[in-house]
Design goal:
Distance between the termini of chain C: 57 Å
Number of strands of chain B: 5
Radius of gyration of chain B: 15 Å
Structural class of chain C: alpha+beta
Distance between the termini of chain B: 45 Å
Chains: A alpha+beta (728), B alpha+beta (154), C alpha+beta (283)
Largest sheet of chain C: 5 strands, antiparallel
Number of strands of chain C: 14
Number of domains of chain C: 3
CATH class of the largest domain in chain C: Alpha Beta
Structural class of chain B: alpha+beta
Oligomer: heterotrimer
Number of domains of chain B: 2
Shape of chain B: globular
Number of helices of chain B: 5
Number of helices of chain C: 12
CATH superfamily of the largest domain in chain B: Beta-grasp domain
CATH topology of the largest domain in chain C: Uridine Diphospho-n-acetylenolpyruvylglucosamine Reductase, domain 3
């Protein structure tokens, strides 16, 4: 297999496939980059949000007169001050902007304050009197479904039920040579972007509103804010790039709506909000905790024949993107395997446990942990090499996957597994395990995974971009997806440069400003490089045509891209199937302390089917970052809650991996060339963290005993080890 | 007034004694390179050098900075056109993604290499363990610092 | 008390610092590295009207050895401890613990006196000080200097015998014997930058043993039964080591919290002792 760098010389591309250094690198490493939360305006007002005192309670009365009377307070706002809809949510607007009658989580906003200083704003919060009538908190999804459980919303606690049924699972299980089962639980992972939610807003002299706020969907945010204000969206400009990290956590509105409301009451003064980490923990969305009860059947020849699963999702208090998360989890429940008999029921259940939403992986890491644990258990039961078993069952182009969808796009998951198999990690695994020092137990683990690119079947998904040639003779590329860290600005410049015949650094890239860029959709759903890239290429081609015709500057050319939709459909599952998917296979070497259950991931190999590599450094960056986020999910990260209250309050008790936990990671690019993507590229921003969350528990199982609940903290591994030791 | 030196220049600020130094640097001196992420000394995003030692500016009372010398990321290297070797290595290796943690890493790495110009891989890991990054998985950061250290040896 | 109303005074000498404490008693707090103080202030606690800055007081910077005592000033930072040649020779156990405190950033500011004053049962320098049978020096204007055995210094989590007019000025202890076997171990939720779930300071000489556990009780605890058996054991085989380590189970009183359950902590006290003993005894 050729390395990423060796390959490019034969491709004939000047920029695509090259390690072009990030265009924003020098600004970032010198601290010059101005994030939205770094901006400072003269004559500023400072905002704060009052949060609910209980996870579940009726609001009897809110009294703000004492807060309003505090000298230095500019305004105090409650639900009564919302001109438009008091609700938000990407799919269902069930989350109040400011709670009026009821609170459903401690993160609920009850009132807003703007004052002359942050300290005054905080004092004012303490002067707002809210009279609550506490209700029993609903904290266990299974109990929330029981008859008589207190309803979080009027319609009851079941927000959505998604099912997928094909073949005859009952017969398939009866005929299977091996059936394995387990119940798998996953953590309330926190995005833990380094930049907490924040920004600025200002009512402009012409009556329009400008919002500066790091976000993943500026145009959609603008619509949501407009609905809350009862305004024409064209009067709102949102500047949303760059972000200090997002990972899905800035996909839903974060502070834009609060900023907008405050800015209407500060007499034109710019107003700032910037959450402390503690507020971000309480108010921000998290990854949905899943409980997956599943059975997998396989034949002696290694064919995986049947999968049955019941997924119960802790939705938290509000829908946000939960319905789409559950749908994607169901679509990908069988991973990249050709399982013929599948029966899945997924339940999305309201609780008072904060609120959950989009997070890199979007439901797939949770189900991958269950599936790939079962695949490993089946391989063990059947005495088949776990990697060979996977290679035998993965889907190839033209074949039908477990969801019943015929794959008509690029797929190289077999090749990813093959690349892992040929890696030095895999070849040396037995030797490494055998060399365990005294007191240590060693294991290796592997898993593979799939993740859809774009929003999927039945959800309109498009991108636009514009290329300008200024009167001064400089190219400007205007594209919606924000610079969230992955380096898409550089990728877009590489693609445009390839088409225009200039150098990437000769192109100024403008992202995420609704005042400048055309609506090109979100920086989510592994769609940035694929969708934004195609719009960029199409715009650049039009510009090249104009230039070829000898048109004089200034020039502007727009390009668009409508994401192709899958031919088939999965009835009842909005967003499924996805026409294009990214695939990955990952393997790990892991060591367990035999006395304490402490774990250490020594090495990881990460083979990614990315279609085509646009920038190897960028691909490695995604792969390495995804792997370590997966290490955190598997081994240490969880936002603990009890009775609807957060026990994990900040980064002191939320345990993120550090430089000392990061393993040596080798990334292998497997190029399948996706014909609908820019230069053959497709999205991999999410699949990079999917298999590793199962490869790690598989390695733990091989070293000691199997864990069914993540994160596999030292205490849980120790318990698994004891259980294993007690078995005859 | 509280007086100290920032990036070689004298600074005097009229702020509350207990105002976190980070806020003073960002709000009152316009130096927004250092960031707040956790506010509790867990993440290193606010790392600055105080009399040559890397400290979390979010945990320092501004009054404690009286008379000291502060170096922020803005005082390392000569700006985007004249990068410090560590900064250049971060760019070359792709060690900055979203970049919000990067200033803290640059300052912490500078402190590490100033004390120990030829660190082992383990010493680099240890020296940067107080800085959290959520994008990169750290590998490219560790490589960049190792590379910068090698460059100095030449 | 608002953050903006708090005053920091910077006395130039120990005498002056003690005068501030005496005059203002409960209204004043010593301010050393601020790594705990600022966290508490931000959480709305410790809103003391007056903070007496002691970080740079020359009287609190000493690190010396005389008359059988090694003395470390209260304002000595973890960073200085772990880099000190004197500590490497006389108290490598303490230096090893200092290396495990927080991050380099915390080590640059945080002080030994601060770790004692905060009095967390998980404070990493405290188990070594228990194992060293150190004494804590307290000074006040009215009462002069007194030395308190470290085991008597702590009353409970966050509570010590220090009176409001007193300042922790130094810690002193007899040096570790040359050739003594010792081990510092810490179990956290990750390898670096972690608050201890359990920690262990172990010292072993022929006929002499000191075992102190952190984070498994309201204060750091000495495991005296383990010590007695270790000092009396004639030979250490694996079975002996294991049975002595198991005794730690009865000598600790952990609670469950966000980091670990009490049951796990209790088992881990034994596990750390077993691992530590096996390492230093090579069994």
């Amino acid at each position: 297999m050729r390395s990423i760098d060796e390959r490019r010389s034969s491709d004939g591309f000047q920029w695509v496939g090259r390690r072009v250094p990030r265009l924003d690198g020098p600004e970032k490493v010198t601290g010059r980059t101005k994030y939205m939360t770094d901006l400072h305006f003269a004559n500023a007002a400072y905002g704060r949000v009052l949060r609910a005192a209980h996870p579940h309670a009726i609001i009897r009365r809110i009294e703000v007169s004492r807060a309003r009377a505090l000298p230095g307070v500019i305004c105090v706002l409650t639900a009564a001050d919302i001109p438009g809809l008091n609700g938000f949510g990407i799919i269902i607007q069930d989350q109040p902007v400011l709670a009026r009658e009821k609170v459903r989580m401690t993160g609920d906003a009850v009132a807003l304050v703007a004052a002359e200083s942050e300290e005054l704003a905080e004092q004012a919060l303490a002067l707002i009197e809210v009279d609550y009538e506490p209700l029993p908190a609903v904290t266990e999804p299974l109990q929330a479904l029981a008859p008589g459980a207190p309803p979080v919303h009027e319609g009851g606690n079941l927000l959505q039920r998604t099912t997928l049924c094909r073949g005859d699972v009952a017969r398939a299980f009866a005929e299977a040579d091996a059936v394995v089962e387990g119940t798998f639980e996953t953590p309330r992972q926190m995005h833990a972007f380094i930049e907490t939610e924040g920004g600025w807003a200002r009512l402009e002299p012409d009556g329009s509103l400008t919002i500066w706020c790091p976000a993943q969907a500026a145009y959609r945010d603008r619509l949501q804010v407009a609905r809350i204000l009862g305004w024409n969206p064209n009067r709102i400009r949102i500047i949303s790039s760059p972000l200090g990290g997002g990972f899905g956590g800035k996909d839903e509105l974060t502070v834009q709506h609060y900023l907008a409301l405050l800015a209407l009451h500060t007499g034109g003064r710019p107003v700032k909000l910037h959450y402390k980490r503690e507020e971000s923990v309480v108010a921000g969305i998290k990854r949905h905790p899943f409980r997956v009860e599943a059975w997998l059947g396989a034949n002696r020849d290694g064919t995986i024949t049947a999968l049955q699963a019941r997924i119960v999702v802790d939705k938290g208090a509000y829908a946000s993107l939960g319905p789409a998360v559950l749908n994607l989890a169901v679509e990908h429940i069988a991973g990249p395997y050709k399982v013929e008999h599948v029966a899945v029921e997924g339940l999305l259940v309201y609780t008072n446990n904060g609120t959950n939403g989009a997070f890199r992986g979007f439901g797939v890491p949770q189900t991958c942990f269950a599936l790939e644990s079962l695949v490993e258990m089946a391989a063990e039961r059947l005495g088949i090499d776990p990697l060979a078993l996977r290679k035998q069952n993965v889907v190839r182009r033209g074949e039908v996957d477990g969801a019943g969808h015929r794959i008509e796009s690029s797929v190289a998951v077999w090749e990813c597994l093959d690349a892992v198999e040929r890696s030095s990690l895999w070849e040396g695994r037995a030797e490494w395990v055998a060399a365990a020092p005294a007191g240590k137990l060693r294991g290796y683990g592997v898993a593979c995974g799939v993740h859809g690119v774009g929003l999927g079947k039945g959800v309109p998904d498009f991108a636009n971009a514009a290329v300008e040639l200024t009167a001064e003779g400089r190219f400007r590329l205007l594209v919606a997806p924000q610079e969230i860290g992955q380096g898409n600005g550089t990728i877009y410049a590489q693609m445009a440069a390839e088409v225009l015949g200039c150098a990437p650094d000769e192109i100024e890239v403008v992202q995420g400003d609704t005042g400048q860029v055309p609506d090109g959709g979100t920086v989510t759903a592994s769609r940035g490089t694929y969708a934004g890239g195609m719009a960029t290429v199409n715009a650049a081609k039009k510009m090249a045509t104009l230039l070829g015709q000898g048109a004089p500057p200034p020039l502007r050319a727009e390009g668009y891209f409508i994401l192709p939709q899958a031919a088939g459909a999965l009835p009842g599952i909005i967003g499924a199937p996805h026409h294009v998917c990214g695939y990955a296979a990952q393997a790990v070497l892991l060591e367990v302390d035999a006395l304490t259950g402490e774990t250490r991931v020594e090495r990881v190999v990460s083979a990614i089917d990315c279609g085509r590599v646009i920038n190897p450094t960028g691909l490695e960056g995604q792969s390495e970052g995804g792997v370590v986020m997966g290490v955190g999910f598997a081994l240490c990260e969880d936002t603990l809650m009890e009775g609807g209250l957060h026990r994990t309050r900040n980064l002191t008790t939320y345990i993120l991996p550090t430089t000392c936990e990061t393993p040596a990671i080798e990334t292998i690019a497997v190029e399948s060339c996706e014909e609908t993507g820019p230069f053959g590229a497709k999205g991999i921003g999410e699949v990079v963290m999917v298999p590793v969350v199962a490869a790690i528990p598989n390695a733990i199982a091989r070293a000691t005993g199997r864990v069914f609940r993540l994160p596999a903290t030292p205490e849980r591994v120790w318990a698994a080890m004891r259980k294993e030791a007690q078995q005859p | 007034m509280i007086s100290f030196t920032v990036n070689g220049r004298p600074a005097a600020v009229a702020v509350p004694d207990a105002k976190p130094l980070l806020d003073t640097l960002r709000d009152d001196l316009g130096l927004t390179g250092a960031k707040e992420c956790c506010g509790k000394g867990e993440c290193g995003s606010c790392t600055v050098l105080m009399d040559g030692e890397p400290v979390c500016a979010c945990l320092v009372f501004t009054a404690q900075a009286r008379g000291v010398e502060i170096i922020t990321v803005e005082g390392i290297g000569g700006g985007p056109e004249q990068l410090d070797p560590i900064q250049a290595a971060f760019v070359a290796e792709g060690a900055a993604q979203c970049g919000y943690c990067t200033p803290g890493f640059i300052v912490a790495a500078r402190a590490l290499l100033d004390k120990n110009p030829h660190p082992t891989a383990a010493e680099i890991r240890r020296g940067l363990a107080g800085n959290l990054c959520r994008c990169t998985g750290y590998q490219k950061i560790l490589q960049a610092v190792a590379k910068a250290a090698e460059g100095r040896a030449d | 008390m608002l953050l903006s109303e708090m005053k920091v005074v910077a006395p130039g000498s120990l005498t002056e610092a003690l005068r501030w404490l005496e005059e203002h008693q409960d209204r004043a707090r010593p301010l050393a590295g601020a790594t705990d103080a600022m966290v508490r202030v931000k959480e709305g606690q410790w809103r003391s009207p007056i903070w007496v800055e002691i970080r740079r007081l020359p009287e609190l910077q000493r690190m010396d050895q005389a008359d059988g005592w090694v003395t470390v000033g209260a304002a000595v930072t973890y960073g200085r401890l772990l880099r000190s040649e004197l500590m490497a020779q006389t108290a490598p156990l303490l230096a090893a613990a200092a290396r495990d405190v927080g991050s380099v950033q915390i080590q640059a500011m945080g002080t030994l006196g601060g770790n004692l004053g905060t009095a967390s049962p998980a404070g990493d320098t405290i188990p070594p000080l228990f194992a060293l049978e150190a004494e804590v020096g307290l000074c006040s204007r009215g009462g002069g200097e007194r030395w308190v055995p470290v085991e008597s210094f702590f009353l409970g989590p966050g509570r010590t015998v220090r009176r409001p007019d007193e300042l922790i000025t130094a810690v002193r202890f007899a040096p570790q014997a040359p050739g003594e076997r010792w081990k510092w171990q810490k179990l956290g939720l990750r390898g670096a930058q972690a608050i201890s779930m359990v920690s262990l300071a172990l010292r072993l000489q022929p006929g002499f043993a000191r075992v102190a556990f952190g984070a498994v009780g309201p204060t750091v605890l000495r495991a005296r039964k383990c010590e007695a058996w270790l000092s009396q054991a004639e030979a250490f085989d694996l079975a002996t080591v294991r049975s002595i380590a198991q005794m730690a189970w009865k000598e600790v009183a952990p609670i469950s919290d966000v980091r670990a359950s009490a049951a796990y902590r209790q088992q881990m006290a034994c596990a750390l002792l077993e691992r530590g003993l096996r390492e230093v005894l090579a069994v």
